[in-house]
Amino acid sequence: MTDAAARIIDLYSRHAVAWTRARGTALRERAWIERFADILRPGATVLDIGCGSGEPIARFLASGGHPITGVDGSPEMVALFRTNLPSEAAETVDMRSLKMNRRYGGLVAWDSFFHLTDHEQRMMFPIFCDHAEPEAPLLFTSGPAFGEAIGTLEGEPLYHASLDPNEYDLLLNENGFDVVAHVAEDADCGGRTVWLARQRPL
Asked: Which terminus of the chain has fewer Cβ atoms in its 10 Å neighbourhood, N or C?
């Protein structure tokens, strides 16, 4: 499965338009995105990690007065993001080497972080910490239990992985985040396993 993991960025790059069309603009995650937004300070800048085309999550947050910086490893996705949200910032960056040299009022890694291997996911938590302002919320999706899974994108293998929930708890705590909410296989959100955490105050 590691071969499929290594091809994630290439896969999304080649199928960026098809994925964006299939994803659509319906905010099926509205309850979680609104809960995240409720924690944000007014006008807080949000770092959208694995931003894709910016539809619909980045657009929703931007419409609420939150400047967005989108980052994605796929140049094609970043181009779509810039077309959809020309007033927001976007950069082509692999999240595994993310170093923006600033902190943000909120971090989102929705349906992106879970494409990393278990080792790569562990390495992301210090990166989250380095980019989060005090009290900044962090929202991400994972699997419900430790393991790997293969889906499909345009008929090609699409890699996913997850740590054990207890390890996510530990990594969040070690990197200064407190869990606000966690639901495994949320039936109201397409069966996604969702984590909402918040960076501790200074």
From this structure: C
